[in-house]
């Protein structure tokens, strides 16, 4: 690795339930545009992106069995930085991002795994030794910070955590504010501003799927049905609103309609495209 290729950070991504590692890196034809946008933005900022799937193949949620696997990977990356990325004066920071059960794993279960804490009952002497060694052990944790969303206030004093909340997550915001008032650790809360639906919003979020003209078409369909509050954000959850579902279905059918001048089939499945659009529209609810 040349100095120019040396990453500025190593970012581990923990997917939410019902997704997997492929959704971070899949082609544009699969319905995980928000996850893929996160990867693209991280790479643009010089981060090396690392991810794995949870072991639960049914719900695809993370649990305590996954934390040791993640800890082992992050410890390996930290210990092998010189061999993997070449020499450098500064250690490459290791960060984590997670949503939903991925956030729970990163904030609650991963720190214990990194500190080799056992869930088995401890004697009083063992607890005293662990407390004495805690500061030294904490300094050896190879994770420099965690960014999470869609998770409750799981305040952990061992790893710096930044909590993100969307503008429609009022209960989560109140919970975090109350918890932070009682906590002086390395924790911050960033309430994200509302995202506004604009005529070109869909094209900006799905540049490989939707053109600016098509984006304006769907925007006008939504606006004409008076589904937006103050013409900016959805009044109801677009994923469960039957009118939005109808408009998206109609839009996808028109967008993927074969061109009379071409015999080539559409490059994306209609179901995948509809799911991708629904995922993006959720941002403006």
The value of Rg in angstroms is 22 Å
Residue share in helices? 40-55%
| Order of helical and strand elements | EHHEHHEHHEEHEHHEEHH
Please state the average pLDDT score. Answer: 83
Runs with pLDDT <50, length 5+?
117-122, 132-138, 260-265
Total number of helices:
11
Strands side by side in the biggest sheet: 2-1-3-4-5-6
Structural class: alpha/beta
Q: What proportion strand?
A: 5-15%
Give the total of beta strands.
8
Distance between the termini: 43 Å
Based on CA inertia axes, which overall geometry fits?
A: globular
Can you describe what's shown?
The structure is a single chain. With 285 residues, the protein is α/β, with parallel strands linked by helices. The chain is built from 11 helices and 8 strands. The strands form 2 sheets. Strands 2-1-3-4-5-6 form a 6-stranded parallel sheet, sandwiched between helices. Strands 7-8 form a two-stranded antiparallel sheet. Helix 9 packs antiparallel against helix 10 and helix 10 crosses helix 11. The longest helix has 16 residues, at 124-139. The radius of gyration is 22 Å and the shape is globular. The two termini are 43 Å apart. Mean pLDDT is 83; it is low at 117-122, 132-138 and 260-265.
